[in-house]
Amino acid sequence: MAATKTVYQVQQPYNSTVPRHGVLTLFGYGIQARVDRGHLLVEDGIGAERRHFRFARVGHGLKRLVIIGSDGMISLAALRWLSDQQAAFIMLERDGKVLAVTGPVRPSDARLRRAQALAQQSRAALEIGKELIQAKLIGQESLVRNKLQNSTTADAIARFRDRLPTADTLGLIRTLEAQAAAAYWSAWGTLPITFPRQDMRRMPEHWRTFGTRKSPLTGSPRLAVTPPGAILNYCYALLESESRLAAATLGLDPGIGMLHVDTPNRDSLACDLMEPVRPAVDAWLLDWITQEPFRRSDFFETVTGNCRLMSSLCRRLSEAATVWGKMVAPWAERVASLLWASASRSTKPSLHTLATRLTQAHRREAKGAPALKVEAPKPDTLCRGCGKQIPRGKRYCQQCAVPLTRHNFDAGRKMAHSPESRAQRSETQRRQQAANRAFNPSELPTWLTREFYTSRIAPALANVPKPRIRSALGVSEPHAVRIQRGTVPHPRHWLALAQLVGINSPSAGVPPEPMQ
After folding, report:
1. What angle is formed at CA 243 by the lines to CA 240 and CA 245, rounded to 5 degrees?
2. Phi and psi dihedrals of 454, rounded to 5?
3. Residue 20, by phi and psi: left (phi above 0), alpha (psi -120 to 50) or beta?
4. Do 229 and 307 meet the contact criterion of CB atoms below 8 Å apart?
């Protein structure tokens, strides 16, 4: 008897398109990357939902190949294909940990690596550390002051930043950075996190606010227990990968750092280069939190309470890898130039200027081209009701907008008939009636009669904006609309309306254009 199929596999056609950011993210089980007849063949997915890609050596647009997980294979020929096409390979664990990063290999100068190894003795490490942390604290202070509107915390970060120039050891720089970070993340603690209405009943209570940056599971940012913390950890992993690629491209050793101490299984220099760019990643996440809701289906919680990202969200976040790479590039070149300058002082002062391989700054200066402007990507716009992706500029999808409109109408009608609203309307009516009784008709000019108003003033009011009528008379918007449409108001308003349309005498003309 023949065995029955338990999982039906559907062979999907090959796709040769790459996202516009040039980043292709693979996830699932049985991931494959190999070369066949000069083409890079890529496959990923789960079960019957498989994706197949086939890229030629020309016109593929691939810049980064990101693999999430460790279930699959990549051939040596595929790594060679990526290297020949100047594309990087990044392998991440499902919790965001960087497992492997490879990129185009360039020849390095031994003098630059020697200067990097001797940076602690040449005091270059101290200068580099001050500059990197100075930029980081400036970014944190600006974010807290301008976006979080917390001037007290911003002033505290500024005080730590002002002490940096006098710091004479790397240990003191680390201490100032840690104290500023504690104040910085405390300003995030009560930040509310929004989800679509239908997801709120399935939400853990601690997911509703940002909370602390440190996880209660580890006492550090690792193994975050909230969605924003998990997103930050993943984005920082992408930033670390880009920092490592930038250091290797410039001929630096990613493992020999300045601020971060030497630790096994960590690229200390890559962690150093991340520091001035972290506030940009934080600002991007803050804009996401304040403008768009999260979606419950993009996250899951392990049995220990660790919050993880679903593969679909990881794929969208990975598209920003090249953006973070462009932001870290000038800082990598700045560190390399400072190390190169220290090597010049110790050997010969006639060393040539270090090439700007990442930003092409020297070539752009020679051509008079402006500096590149890097903008962080925008998150998807989601419906506040169901979490469905919708076009930008909208807040609800078509299905959620109809009942919501009816709900708002019913709520507004209920509010209009509340005792407070009725009392406010009664007070307004009494005030208007008292003003009408106190009006003396003799105060009007003799030429300002009812016939003059209906024939000269009323037609001219059609060109006057309703807010100006409402402001000049102190009436409600519906009453201003009725006056503009021809209703004759109380005589006490005639003189103000005549002046509003520019009529101060019976011989004055009516301006043909609306008054601004």
Report:
1. 110
2. -70, -30
3. alpha
4. yes
Closest CA to 477 of 469, 486, 489, 485: 469
CB atoms within 10 A of CB 442: 6
Mean pLDDT value across the chain: 83
Q: What is the distance between the alpha carbons of residues 23 and 61, in angstroms, rounded to a whole number?
A: 9
Q: What per-residue confidence (pLDDT) applies to 438?
A: 85
Q: Which residues contact 343 (CB under 8 A, 6 or more apart)?
A: 111, 112, 114, 115, 351
- Tell me which H or E stretch contains 235: helix 227-249
How far is it, in rounded angstroms, from Cα 479 to Cα 428? 13
Cβ contact 328:273 at 8 Å: yes
Please tell me what DSSP assigns to residue 209: B
CB 497 within 8 A of CB 461: yes
pLDDT of residue 508: 59
Q: Residue 101: beta bridge partners? A: 90
- Please name which of 113, 182, 117 lies closest in space to residue 153, comparing C-alpha atoms: 182
pTM: 0.71
**Amino acid letter at 86?**
Q
Distance CA 222, CA 213 (A): 9
Secondary-structure class of domain 110-363 per CATH: mainly alpha
Amino acid (1-letter code) at residue 326: K
Q: How far apart are alpha carbons 307 and 309 in whole angstroms?
A: 7
Q: Higher confidence at residue 118 or residue 427? A: 118
Task: Give, in order, the Cα–Cα distances in Å from 235 to each of 8, 139, 322.
Answer: 35, 17, 12
Output the CA–CA distances (angstroms, integers) from residue 390 to 59, 309, 382, 386, 398, in the order listed: 31, 21, 6, 11, 9
How is residue 453 annotated by DSSP?
A: I
Positions of E strands within 6-69: 23-26, 31-36, 39-46, 49-55, 64-68
| Torsion, CA 120, CA 121, CA 127, CA 129, rounded to 10 | 10
| Spatial separation of the C-alpha atoms in residues 99 and 229, rounded to whole Å | 20
C-alpha atoms less than 13 angstroms from C-alpha of 211 in its C-beta half-sphere: 17
**Looking at residue 222, what DSSP letter applies?**
S
**CATH annotation of 23-92:** 3.100.10.20
Distance in angstroms (rounded) separating the CA atoms of residues 464 and 57: 65
Q: Is 244 exposed, middle or buried (0-12, 13-18, 19+ CB in 10 A)?
A: buried
Domains of the chain, residue spans: 23-92, 110-363, 440-500
pLDDT tier at 345, thresholds 50, 70, 90:
low
State the Cα–Cα distance between residues 508 and 486, nearest whole angstrom: 21
**Rounded CA separation 125/272 (Å):** 11
- Cα separation, 146 vs 322, whole angstroms: 26
